[in-house]
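Incident log, support desk, overnight shift.

02:14 A customer reports that sequence design results differ from what the structure should imply. Their input is reproduced verbatim below. On-call engineer (initials T.W.) acknowledged and began investigating.
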C-alpha cells in the first residue's frame, strides 16, 4: 500500500504524524510508500530528528496551506494547496492507495468526496466508526457525514459496515441492526420505521450481505453480539461523542476516587494490571480512526487529538482496507441491492 498522510492534520501536528509514520515504517509490513504531505520546511527537520528523512519508503510532498481544526468544509475550496487536499489528490491520481488525516472531520469528508468521487451505486458516503463492546467491536454508521440520510441511504451504510465487519474484523456473518428506541417493529421515528421496513423486505429477498436483526437500542452497542448499528449522521455523531465523553468522564472520576485516600491508592497499585488492560480496551488510540466509506478510494479520518500510536493504528486500518479490497466488495453488493431497492420503490409508487 502507498499512503498519503496529511502531515499537518491534528491538534498536535505535524509531530504526531511523524511519530506515527516512523512506527508504521517499522510495524506495517504492507506499507510500501508513505507520502508526508505538508510544509516541507517544517517536515524536513522533524523527519531528520526521527531518523526517517532518508528512508527510501518516505517521500515529502510540499503543500503551502493548512486547513485549521476550527475551519469548515468550505476551507477545502478556499485552500486548494492545503496538505489535506494535496494528500487526497495523490489518491485521485493513483499515486497513493489511501489517504489519512487527523484534521478537521468536515473538511476531510468534503475533500475526499469532491476529489475522489463516489463508488458506483453510492449517493452519499458515510463514516463508519468502531467502538469497543463486550464481544469485540461494534461499528456505528453514519457518524457525521450525512445528517439527513434517507432509509435507502441507511441500507447502503449497513452494507459499508457489514463489509468492514466481515473483512477487517473477521465476522463472516455480520449482524446489523437499525438504531431505535426499542427493539419492537413499531418502535422508532418515521425514518427508522421506514428503514426497518425496507431492510426487512430486502432480507426477505435474501440479497442483503448481512443478517438483519431488526431494531437495536443503545445498550445493544456494548452488551450484545451486534456487529453494526445504522443511523443517520445526526444521531450517530451525537452517540459517538457521548460514548467517547462518557469514557473520559469515567476515567476522571476513577482517578479522583483513587487519589482520595491512601487505601484507595494502595488498592490501585494492586489493580495496575487490570487498569492497563482496561485502558487498552477503551483507549481510542488503539482503534486509530474512522473510515469514510463510499468514496472512490480509501479515506481514514483520525481523531484530532490523535498521537503517534493512533496514527499507526489508522495506517493499519488503511492497509487492511486496501489488502482486502473492501471497496470492490461494496460495489459487488450494491449491484445486487440497489436494483432491488428500485423495484420495491416502484411497487410502492
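02:41 Re-run completed on a clean worker. Output:
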Amino acid at each position: 500500500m502507498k499512503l498519503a498522510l496529511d502531515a499537518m492534520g491534528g491538534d498536535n501536528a505535524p509531530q504526531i504524524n511523524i511519530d506515527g509514520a516512523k512506527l508504521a515504517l517499522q510495524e506495517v509490513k504492507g506499507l510500501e510508500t508513505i507520502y508526508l504531505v505538508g510544509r516541507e520546511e517544517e517536515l524536513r527537520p522533524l523527519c531528520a530528528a526521527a531518523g526517517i528523512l532518508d528512508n527510501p519508503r518516505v517521500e515529502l510532498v510540499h503543500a503551502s496551506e493548512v486547513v485549521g481544526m476550527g475551519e469548515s468544509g468550505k476551507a477545502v475550496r478556499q485552500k486548494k494547496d492545503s496538505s489535506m487536499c494535496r494528500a487526497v489528490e495523490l489518491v485521485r491520481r493513483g499515486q497513493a492507495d489511501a489517504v489519512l488525516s487527523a484534521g478537521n472531520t468536515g473538511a476531510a469528508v468534503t475533500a475526499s468526496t469532491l476529489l475522489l468521487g463516489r463508488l458506483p451505486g453510492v449517493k452519499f458516503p458515510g463514516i463508519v466508526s468502531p467502538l469497543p463492546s463486550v464481544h469485540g467491536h461494534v461499528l456505528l454508521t453514519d457518524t457525521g457525514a450525512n445528517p439527513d440520510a434517507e432509509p435507502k441511504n441507511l441500507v447502503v451504510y449497513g452494507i459499508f459496515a457489514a463489509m468492514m465487519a466481515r473483512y477487517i474484523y473477521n465476522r463472516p456473518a455480520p449482524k446489523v441492526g437499525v438504531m431505535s428506541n426499542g427493539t419492537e417493529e413499531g418502535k422508532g421515528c418515521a425514518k427508522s420505521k421506514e428503514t426497518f421496513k425496507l431492510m426487512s423486505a430486502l432480507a426477505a429477498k435474501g440479497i442483503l450481505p448481512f443478517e438483519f436483526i431488526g431494531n437495536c437500542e443503545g445498550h445493544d452497542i456494548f452488551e450484545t453480539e451486534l456487529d453494526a448499528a445504522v443511523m443517520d449522521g445526526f444521531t450517530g455523531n451525537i452517540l459517538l461523542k457521548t460514548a467517547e465523553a462518557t469514557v473520559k468522564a469515567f476515567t476522571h472520576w476513577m482517578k479522583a476516587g483513587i487519589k482520595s485516600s491512601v487505601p484507595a491508592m494502595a488498592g490501585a497499585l494492586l489493580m495496575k494490571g487490570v487498569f492497563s488492560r482496561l485502558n487498552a480496551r477503551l483507549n481510542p488510540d488503539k482503534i486509530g480512526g474512522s473510515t469514510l466509506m463510499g468514496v472512490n478510494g480509501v479515506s481514514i479520518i483520525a481523531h484530532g487529538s490523535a498521537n503517534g500510536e493512533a496514527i499507526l493504528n489508522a495506517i493499519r486500518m488503511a492497509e487492511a482496507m486496501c489488502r482486502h479490497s473492501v471497496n470492490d466488495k461494496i460495489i459487488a453488493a450494491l449491484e445486487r441491492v440497489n436494483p432491488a431497492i428500485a423495484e420495491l420503490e416502484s411497487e410502492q409508487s
